User: Which sequence fits this backbone?
C-alpha cells in the first residue's frame, strides 16, 4: 500500500524516532509499503518518519529494483564505525527539489536489526555510506539541511517559504 510521504515542516520529521520492538507481520507489511512508496516517489532511501511514523526503521535500495541484494532494511540502526570524509550533493523526498552538498563520513559500519529482530552489521562506502548517514539522521529527527552552513540553510529555508507562498510546496 502506498503511504503518503510527508514534507518539511511536518513536526514528525524533526522528532526522535521510537525503537521498533515488535517483529511481526505488521512490521513486514510496513516495510513492503515503505519500499513501494519509495519506488513510487523515485527515491533510493526512505525512513519511517517520512511516512509519518516516528519509528527507527529505514529502507534503502541504491539500484532502484535492479538488484534484489541491494534492498536493505535497517531496524533500530546505529553507526558503530566511521572513517574519512566525503562532500556530495544530497536530496530528500521530504524536501522536494532541494539539493545541497553535505559533508559525511566516506565509510561507515552500521549495526541494525533485520525483520526477524536479529542483529547484523553492514558496511558502506561513498553513496551507500551517505545513504546510511542520511537515513539514520531521519530517525534522529535530523534533516540534511541541519548539516550545512547557516548561510546555506537560510537560503534553503527561504526557497521553501517562497515555494509555499506560490502553493508549490
Ligand atoms: Ni531524506
Assistant:
Amino acid at each position: 500500500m502506498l503511504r503518503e510521504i510527508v514534507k518539511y515542516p511536518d513536526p514528525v520529521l524533526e522528532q526522535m524516532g521510537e525503537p521498533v520492538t515488535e517483529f511481526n507481520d505488521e512490521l513486514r507489511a510496513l516495510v513492503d509499503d515503505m519500499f513501494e512508496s519509495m519506488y513510487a516517489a523515485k527515491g533510493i532511501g526512505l525512513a519511517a518518519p517520512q511516512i509519518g511514523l516516528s519509528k527507527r526503521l529505514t529502507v534503502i535500495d541504491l539500484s532502484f529494483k535492479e538488484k534484489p541484494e541491494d534492498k536493505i532494511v535497517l531496524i533500530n540502526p546505529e553507526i558503530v564505525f566511521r572513517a574519512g570524509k566525503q562532500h556530495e550533493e544530497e536530496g530528500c523526498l521530504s524536501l522536494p527539489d532541494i539539493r545541497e552538498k553535505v559533508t559525511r563520513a566516506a565509510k561507515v559500519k552500521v549495526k541494525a536489526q533485520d525483520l526477524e529482530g536479529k542483529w547484523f552489521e553492514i558496511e558502506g562506502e561513498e553513496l551507500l555510506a551517505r545513504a546510511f548517514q542520511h537515513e539514520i539522521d531521519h530517525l534522529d529527527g535530523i534533516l540534511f539541511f541541519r548539516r550545512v552552513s547557516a548561510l546555506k540553510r537560510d537560503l534553503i529555508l527561504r526557497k521553501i517559504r517562497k515555494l509555499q507562498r506560490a502553493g508549490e510546496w
